[in-house]
Design goal:
Shape: elongated
Radius of gyration: 34 Å
Strand order of the largest sheet: 1-2
Order of helices and strands: EEHHHHHH
Oligomer: single chain
Number of strands: 2
Largest sheet: 2 strands, antiparallel
Helix content: 55-70%
Number of domains: 2
Length: 148
């Protein structure tokens, strides 16, 4: 039983018959504690579970990487060497080895990224210039710098 007494700025609580209630509560707590401990022990993961999870994550990462590589190689208009450099760059793993660089981007569309990659690749632009006989990127740069 608890008595309350209102004082200025505080309230005083007095526990009456503390020993009587303490023994009863202690007996109840012991049983529930044993039950709770038994439940907690069963749900604690062991090292084998963690190892299985890591292996599953590694397989998942490998599958995602394989899918990415196959999607990149569907863009046959680009030289194979350039595609290999693109793949090497974008499949770099993060520190925890859970994601690849392209997965960390907010948006990622392979065809658009390849277009940008090709426009910045010196070897591809040189090959394109040789095949076409005329380089539009050089003309654009000359026009822009002339206006400055």
């Amino acid at each position: 039983m608890i008595n309350t007494e209102g004082l200025r700025k505080t309230t005083r609580l007095t526990v009456c018959n503390y020993d009587k209630y303490q023994n009863m509560q202690h007996a109840d707590n012991t049983d529930s504690t044993r039950t709770q401990h038994g439940l907690n022990t069963d749900s604690t993961p062991n090292k084998n579970d963690k190892k299985d999870k890591n292996e599953k994550n590694e397989k998942s990462l490998e599958l995602r990487e394989t899918k990415f590589i196959s999607e990149v190689y569907q863009n046959e208009i680009y030289p194979k060497e350039m595609l290999q450099k693109f793949i090497s760059y974008w499949t770099e793993k993060n520190k925890s080895k859970t994601k690849m660089r392209f997965e960390l981007e907010k948006t990622f569309e392979i065809s658009r990224r390849l277009t940008t990659w090709a426009s910045r690749d010196k070897n591809y632009n040189k090959l394109k210039k040789d095949n076409d006989g005329y380089d539009f990127t050089d003309q654009f740069v000359r026009e822009v710098t002339r206006d400055l």
